[in-house]
Amino acid sequence: MRSTHKIKSSLVKVGAAPESLPEMVTEAQASGVSLGKVSSVESSPEDHALENKGTGTWSLTAWVSEVQAFEARAVRAQAWETQAFEAQSRASHPKVTPVTGAAAAPVLRQRFLPEKVQVPEEEKSELLITRPFWSNKAEYLLAQVGYTMRPASLWSFCYLWLHSGGGIFLIIYIFLLFLIGIPLLFLEMTAGQRMRQGNIGVWKAINPWTGGIGYTSLMVCFINGLFLNVVTAWILFYLSQSFQFPVPWEKCPLLENASGFDPECARTTPSLYFWYRMTLKASDSIESNGPPVLSLTLPLFVSLCLLGAFMLKGLKWTGKVMCVLVSTSGLIMLYLVVRSIMLEGAVFGLHYMTVVKISTIADASIWHGAGNQVLCSLGLGFGSIVSIASHMESSNSCLSDAVIVALANLVSMMLVTPFIFSVLGFWATQLTHHCNAKNIETILKLVNMGILPPEAQPPQNLIGNPTSIFTSWFNSLSHPIKKEVLSHVSECNLEEQFLKIKESTNFAFLAFIEAMSFIPGSISWSILFFLMLLNLELSTTIGITHSIITSLQDIFISVQKYTKLFTGSYYIRLLIDYWTIVPIIIIIIFENLAVNWARKAGR
User: Fold this and answer.
1) Same domain (yes/no): 120, 184
2) How confident is the model at residue 28 (pLDDT cuts 50, 70, 90)?
3) Do both 65 and 150 map to the same domain?
4) N or C, fewer C-beta in 10 Å, the chain?
């Protein structure tokens, strides 16, 4: 009884729980009896009385040591569990009461659990802030596809197809798409989906030293977003001008108070004149300043307002907008392809599409162009794919998504290519018709003036197919008269007219716009074409802007609760940046006017 009382007092001192005392006393008594039996067997009879006398003291010392060992082990376990719990809630910095030795003394033979930490309501609301998810997988895939369907990439693909060996370029492109494009696309999707971070957060997670790459890509996205907004303003301007009949880029404008056309437009094409003089209002040289282009101010403001409205309500509304933009673009694209194949001269353009130059497969420049086209068409390296994928669940299959997005991008380019080749074939045919009609007018004048013999009298009825009528008449002439006629007129070659688009992609785009003005019902063609370009450009700009906003929200975590306010302030900032340029330009103009006035006054 004395030993039992000592055990109870010692356990109370070390901090054991009262309800565990009966169990510990029972075990102590059982252990004392068993140890006494062992000692009686191994020791001599003379020592038996001494061992019985010291059993109470010996068992008390052993159990105090055992209690201390359990206590130390429990304190270490409690400290480990406290550290783990603090690491989980480190993002919100909860106020955790430090654990002391006496307060953390555990109960023996019990399961140790972490203490429930009382978190304030404000910190609980911060803990509940999570990255939102897309409403469904279809919206996510359409957002990725809409970002990759860039109008510039679609046009450059057709240009490279014509300029880089025809069908061989397509084979090289598909090979590099599966070798480089899909793996890199899969890598970006996996990084964003797994880490739930934007481009900056992903680079920091890979290595803290590479975080600067994320900030650099953020600046590139910002500059690219500004440029895309300007391109959207150009498209809106052309779309607004498409409601006129005829479209202003179909013919050269007439001079004021005169019956002739503008001689500057007569030296070039109506499409080039409208682009440089009516749209950009470009000056003759970089030294000569001019007033700001106020006609593009309203389209630029409208483009920014559209982007702000599409992204202000958050991810779910953006997903619905992307569904409408991408699906509408696909339907318009499909209609234009079917309609363009029926145009006159479309077969000639499609013939160049099927040309295969096998010798160009060994040209390194073609491989370089195809690889660059793969990277640009998928939009790799900007961080938009990472940001869009960061709003998807971790259980999603990124490999199938990467294949679907890459194939959808390839199908869109394969749809645009026959449409562009057909329209350009029609454009080359119409230019050849106009060239032959102009040659016949020139030959008629020369025959009437007596410069050419009467045998060179051309047919005057060119209704139907002027090119075939002129060609059949010209082939019926004798060889000397042919040489004499060719010395006064230019040769109209359909192939040469078509290959003019090889000079540059910008010229080809303007020629394409001019070609649509020749099509019957040119107003509807222009409206549909520029509406398709507007949808594609807006979907790409939304992807770029989403990357910028996501990266900024990851940097400034406190603004995640105010997503609408943050997005609205971002677009207000863009408006301020754009509108501050106008006063600067006006100041420069007035300064130049003052300098010129001072020079004239000095004379």
Assistant:
1) no
2) very low
3) no
4) C
